[in-house]
Amino acid sequence: MRAAAVSTSLLVLLTLSACSGSGTTPADDPPAPAAPTPAPSSATPTAGATGPSTPSATPTAEPTPEGFPELEVEVLADDLTLPWDVDELAGGGLLVTEKESGRILLLDGDQRRELSGGPSGLWSSGETGLMSIVVDPSDEDRFLTCHGHSDGGATDVRVVEWTLDEDRTQATEGDALITGIESTTGRHGGCRMEVSPDGELFVGTGDAAVGTNPRDLTSLNGKVLRADAGTGDPLPDNPFADSDDAATQLVWTYGHRNVQGLAVVDGTVWSAEHGPDVDDEVNRLEAGGDYGWDPVPAGGGGGYDESVPMTDDDLDGDQVAAAWSSGDPTLATSGMTLVEGAEWGGYAGGLAVATLKAQQMLFLPLDDGEVGEARVPEVLTEHGRLRSVTQAADGALLVTTSNGSDDELLRVTPRS
C-alpha cells in the first residue's frame, strides 16, 4: 500500500449515542424521525486507517475551545421534504432540490418559488432521486442536477443542465451531459457534484451495490468523475484520457463505495463517503488513485460482500489510505464544504462534514494536506440528520436536514 495519507491516530469529537444501529444496516438508511438531541463528545477514530477502529468510551461534552467562535443557527426555510442539496445563485437566491418530490425551489428572502416540478423521467428509489445541484460559476443562469432517471423501465443516474428564465420564475431542463451511471434498486446512488473555479465538473458516484463496479474502469459507478462543466466531456488531462472506452475517459479516481461529499481546497479535491458498518472515510483525491473498495465475494461471482475493508491494501497495485476514518461505528458522512473566512477562527481552512446517522456536523481542520483534531459544535446536534453543507458568498454555511418531514434549510454563522 502507498502511504499517501495521514497514518497517525486523531482525537475526534463524535456523538456516539447518535450512531447506534445494526451492523448490517447501510450507512445511508432511510430517513427516520429526529432522535433526541445528542451531546457532543470525543472518541478516537483513526486517520489513514484501512480497517475498523474502536472509539473510546463516550466522554462528556466540552465547551467551545479558545480560538473557535460560538455558532448561531437560523432557520431559513422549514416544511421542506427531504431537501438533498442547496447552492447559491450569483447575486443572491438559493436553489434547493427535494429528493423524492423532484422539486427545484428558489428561496429568495421570504419568497419561495417552485422553479420546476422535477426532471423528466425522475426516478426515486432508496437512496436515489433528485440529488446534487451546482450553479455554473461562469453562467449565473445555468445550473446542473444529478438525479435518478427512468425511461421505459431502464434506469440510470445522470447529470443534466438547466437554464433559469430572466425573471427567475422557471427553470428549463436542457441536455443530459453525463448518462449511464448504473442504478439497480436505488441503493448507493451517489451523487455529489462540485465545480472548481477552473470549470472542472467533479461527480462522485455510488457503486449501485454491484460488487464489480468500483474497480471496473469501464463503469461510471464507485468513482469520482471529472468532466468539462459546460459539455460533460472528459477533460484531456484525465488519468485515463487515452482509453478507447468513453466511460473510462471520465474516471478521475476509483475504488469508492458511495461518495456523498466533495470539496475543492487549493486545487485538491476531497471526498466523503459512506462505509458499510465501519469506516466512513474522508479522502484526499489523487488523479488515477485507487481507494480500495472491492466488495466482490471471495472466489468471484455476482454477489456483494460488505465485510471487506473500506480500503483493502491486499489488492493488486497501490491503494490510497483514507485521510480520516470514522472507525466503528459509522456516522453516515454526507455533504462537505471548505470553510473560509477569518470570522470562523479555528474552523477556517478546514472541512465541514454533515452526517446523517450521527446527526451532527464535523469540522475537520486541514494542515498541509493532513487532517487534524475534529470538533462537533453542540448547536449543530439539535436538528436531526444533516444532509448537505455549502458555504455562501457571505461566509455563512447553508445546511439541509433529512428527517423525512418538516425538514429545514439552516444558516450557520460564527457569533461576532
UniProtKB/TrEMBL annotation:
Stretches of Low complexity bias are at: 40-66
Tell me which domain of life the UniProt entry assigns to the organism this sequence originates from.
Answer: Bacteria
From which organism does this entry originate? Auraticoccus monumenti
Q: Which protein are we looking at?
A: Glucose/arabinose dehydrogenase, beta-propeller fold
Q: Which UniProt keywords apply?
A: Signal
InterPro entries in the record: 6-blade_b-propeller_TolB-like, Glc/Sorbosone_DH, Quinoprot_gluc/sorb_DH_b-prop
Region named Disordered: 22-66
Domain Glucose/Sorbosone dehydrogenase residue range list: 81-405
- PROSITE patterns hit by this protein: PROKAR_LIPOPROTEIN
Which portions of the chain have biased composition (kind: Pro residues)? Answer: 28-39
What does UniProt give as the signal peptide span?
1-27
